[in-house]
Amino acid sequence: MSRRNSLSRAKVRVRRDSGTKLDYYNKIVNKTILAHQNPVSGLLAASTESDHSWIRDDVYSILAVWALALAYKKHADKDYGRAKAYELEQSVVKLMRGLLQAMMLQIKKVEKFKYTYDPRDSLHAKYSSKTCATVVGDFEWGHLQIDAVSLYLLCLAEMTASGLQIIYTLDEVLFIQNLVFYIENSYQIPDYGIWERGDKTNHGLPELNASSIGMAKAALQALDELDLFGSRGSDSSVIHVMSDTIHWCNTILTCMLPRESNSKETDAALLSIISYPGFALDDMELVNLTRQEILSKLQGRYGCCRFIRDGYKTAREDPRRLHYEPWELKIFENIECQWPLFWCYLVLDGIFYNDPEQVEVISTNLEDVLIKDEESIKLVPELYAVPAYKVEEEYKNPKSQDRVPLGKVPHMWGQSLYIISKLLRDNLIAPGELDPLNRRLAIQPKPDLVVQVTVLAENEEIQLKLANDHNINVQTVSDVAPIQIYPAKVLAYIYSFLGKNERLGLTGRPVTDIGFLATSKLYTMKGQLFAFTASFMDHKSFYMASDIDFTLDSFRTYVSFIERNWNNIPGRPTVVFVITKEIYEAHENLNSQLISTIKKLYSGYINGARVQLGRLEDFIKTACLTSLTFIGTGEEGVENEKQVFKYLEEQNTSFSKTSDLINKYKASLSKETGKLGVNNLSTASLNASQVSLASINKNQNRAKKLGAIMGIAKRSRSIHYTECPIIYNTAKRPSFAHIFIDPKRIIEKAAKIPSTLKVPLLDDTNDRQRYIVQNVTYQKMNDDDLLNLLRDNKSLHDEADILHYLYETKNLDWEIPAIHKNFFQGSRLRDLIGNVYEKASIRKMWWLVRHSAGMLDLTSDELPKAVLTLIVRQKQISIGLPSTRLNSEISIKSPLPKDQIYQLIKQAWEKDISMMMVTQELLIYMSLFIATEPQLFEGMIRLRLGLIIQVMIGELERTLSCSVEEATDHLLNLSPYEMKTLLHMILSGKELGATSIYSSRMPSSVSNLDDQKKAEIERRYLRDELKQGYSVRNKPILLISEEKDDEEGANSDLDKHGQWIRRRRLDGSLNRVPIGFYSKVWMALEKCQGIQIYGYVLNQSLTREMTKEELKFALLVEEALNGITEPEYRQLIVEACMLMVMLAQNEPRFFLNEIIIIDNIVNRANELFLQEQVKSDGDATLCCAIGKRCPSARGICEHFYDLAPSGRYGSMNYLFKALTQLLRIQENPDCIVC
């Protein structure tokens, strides 16, 4: 009994102590925060002098009030405590609803911003605390601050989950749903960031900010499937978020961290997303890395700086202007103001991640910098600054001088976080109460995931073939009824009704592509169950889906992607793969690949992912099931429901018609193939494509080459190349030809080479005559004659020729005269080209698929995501060819909508519509590679697609021993999967057609065939190699003479001659530089007046404008290098720069009052090399050493280009000698560089 009484007394004592502490914190909250709350609007005024109220500051400030209400509710033992808790809760609701009202008054901006992403259409960042109206104009402030809106939504979700009722009506629910659309694409929207000024020069330039993306991701995760009416809600009040938008935010965020943006190496604002309140990361290593980066670079004696070279309220800032001149940023270094606010974040970080040592250390430091008022209440000042008279001393000895508090006291945002930390440390509330959605647990390890896979046959015919021929039993699409299967675009259409409200003027979710995560769920709608296939299976979306190889490869990648990225999503992912007749009957090799893929699924693993193959109905209980409750609810629900089910009916009808059309066309093609006596569909299509127009070219004999491309389609190209280097033995030394020189020089040089050694050059005289004849003939024909010719023609190649002529002379919407409409499918030119596109897709005539797709201006839905993926990984993109007469490179430096990207591609390539399509493909492939194999892009900051295409053509030319025109034909004839594989080989430094594999797979009988048949077989083997991915790393194939003398010497030279010039061309085209190259150039720039690269001067003043690890500086150096059009010369410049920076780092005498001209170093090194060649009677005595200039880039001897970098006679040795001579530095034997 006595023990019970003592426990009771202890509890009473604890409650009494808690009540005393709570009353003390209540006093602080009322004095420092609630005293500023407007009684009408509920918003918090920034100060007594101004009624401006910021979204971000208000939300952060009210968090302390909410936390105190939770504490009162937890420890209330009397009516007073419960009443106090309710009173505080209503203050929180009042503020949150006031902000909601202010934003709803700008509902038109929300609607417009969903489509434009224009800063002028963004919600305002601050409002009047009296009226909720705007206080500044659209152009008078950096209003686009995605982190502020995201923070509001995040706290709305947490507060609603804790039991607060903030949202009252369905109209408000729909507005919140549209705010989700407002922030869901934050990963591609540059904004002004948490400090409202964008780029740190304060010139109002928005940039992609990691803190904004992280807060948006946190808000999206918190709101997903949350009922805003709490326990009293229904299906209508649930918020829906697409899982793929969360994944994209996470992907971009993890790529950027610990960097904040292009202009900020890091930022203390990142503390808000790696810990409370954001908890945006699920990787503890990245959390620790980001925190350590902030502490090492930004922490001081009074808190943390916001970012390096932050001039805000420093003694050297000019208060008369908001912006800074770039050159003056250097003067802010080491005197940046320090903010105690960030120590408040770090205390909370230590509490939530259970790090008592961090909590103790930071709390002690924080208490020392707080300011007490007349009532001894501790207040958090805004910042601490170095006084003007101590600035010079602080420059000399950073962090040594005492600072003074400036700005607001208290800083409400920081005061709020300080109060929360005190409530947590005093055990008045627990971390879980501030995070009722348990988002802080995202870093906990997850169990192994199993991907559920269902393979379905399109119809019973495919089902029987799989069962009888391969003993594989699958269901058909109709067998899984009542579950309905649709393509991803149907799900996109359904989601377009989400958030729609005519009364508010809201149109719902913009129709965008649906990602892999969304199609890996099952959906219920009005009692019906739906599954959706991934977008890559829809051949109508873009022609790449018509390549079965690419489809199968995409499926394997899809499953692996799902396994890696299915994070914090309830249930298992369910993948549906439908085997269509097109996939099954593609051809024998692909059929075996299909069966192999299915058997791997049976084994339980594919591409490293754990899978379970089974029936769809068996997966329902364990699948992730999402309810499309927004269909059929609300005022317009009935009408929306009717539209959706009508659309589903149309899709079923459309699918049946398309299947019938394809089967009908294939049947006619089979008859045609049978007449030709050819079994292989692709071979038949080749022969059919080579039937010429009899009325125009009766005596024209077409070349029978694999994938030959002729006619107007070929003439539309804007890319022209010369031959690749030919390495051969002469009586004395090998000689090299240059891939980018004038064709006349190649012909002149080839004329001097023995006929057995020549790479065949294209003699296009007959082709050119045919082009002229075609043009003249078409011009003489009227529209009726052309259409009659088109109608009677049976060659798909010539049909494309006629349509291209009409495309150039008409427009896509040109109406076919009524008399001809009955003979064609469709009534416009667009329809006729579309028919050719479909036929070419079925026949796998990839050059024609690309060409007709270009005429139709087809754009992949994946294009904007591909560009975004590359851009946010700190890559820039150049489209087109550098310094050509008709074309010029166009750069993409920021994420853009699909239409704008395509217009830039179109502008870069002008009339070369095939290369427009190839460019789209390469962007998509590179985005896939950089996501899965980022190491392929190390040392590359700009991706120059025109040069990469040149490299691809050069590799095909070298491997096939053909002309450049033929190699270009072959490139355009590669299937999407083959082109993807070729690109991967080039990026990874592998050798295409390497001797040890390529030659061993060739039958011995090939050597007995004539050149034409031999070439065709070689091309087929190359295609097989691309599909299988056979290659050898860095072992080039070189053409050598057939001289019998000194055969062993010739073989020993194989690995030497041409290897390094080829490698320099590859690295130069890929824009590769050594790791740390840009920061080392910055350090060298500090020790001289400037560095000149090909006429572009990098002035020393750049070091005052930018820090050495700032991405903006790297981009400027890259801009200087990009002025060089010859890739091998560019690489020599890079090598010379690396030597210069090594010398600057290791040579104390390297302080020069002049501009270093890198081109002079390379030219001088070339002169030294030639001098030594004359003395030793070396290779260059055949050309440059005796005054006969070889056809190489920038007058540098091609033998110098082919030198290995290291060694006594390596290029680095000559470059170093040239460097020391030009800089007048005596060579030092103790120097590391020497």
Would you give an account of this structure?
It is a single chain. This protein is an alpha/beta fold and 1234 residues long. It folds into seven domains: 114 residues; 155 residues, no CATH class; 138 residues, no CATH class; 202 residues, no CATH class; 79 residues, no CATH class; 130 residues, no CATH class; 148 residues, no CATH class. Helices cover 48% and strands 7% of the residues. The strands form nine sheets. Strands 7, 8, 14, 15 and 16 form a five-stranded mixed beta sheet that branches. Strands 9-13-12-17 form a four-stranded mixed beta sheet. Strands 19-18-20 form a three-stranded mixed beta sheet. A hairpin with a 2-residue loop joins strand 23 and strand 24. The C terminus is likely disordered.
Helix-strand blueprint:
Blueprint: H1 2-32, E1 52-54, H2 55-75, H3 79-104, H4 107-116, E2 126-128, H5 146-161, H6 170-184, H7 210-223, H8 243-256, H9 271-274, H10 284-298, H11 341-352, H12 356-369, E3 371-372, E4 378-379, E5 383-385, H13 391-396, E6 404-406, H14 412-425, H15 431-434, E7 451-457, H16 460-470, E8 475-476, E9 484-487, H17 488-495, E10 500-501, E11 506-507, E12 522-525, E13 528-533, H18 548-565, E14 574-579, H19 581-584, H20 588-603, E15 605-606, E16 609-613, E17 625-627, H21 637-676, H22 681-688, H23 712-715, H24 743-751, H25 765-780, H26 783-792, H27 796-809, H28 829-843, H29 846-855, H30 863-872, E18 876-879, E19 890-892, H31 898-909, H32 913-932, E20 942-944, H33 945-960, H34 964-973, H35 976-987, E21 990-991, H36 995-998, H37 1011-1028, E22 1032-1033, H38 1047-1052, H39 1059-1069, H40 1077-1085, E23 1090-1093, E24 1096-1099, H41 1102-1105, H42 1111-1121, H43 1127-1146, E25 1155-1157, H44 1158-1176, H45 1198-1201, H46 1211-1222
Parallel strand pairs: 7-8, 7-14, 7-16, 9-13, 12-17, 18-20, 23-25
Antiparallel strand pairs: 1-2, 3-4, 5-6, 10-11, 12-13, 15-16, 18-19, 21-22, 23-24
Helix pairs in contact: 1-2, 1-14, 2-3, 2-5, 2-14, 4-6, 5-6, 5-7, 7-8, 11-12, 11-14, 18-20, 27-28, 28-29, 29-32, 30-32, 31-32, 32-35, 33-34, 39-43, 40-43, 43-44, 43-46, 44-46
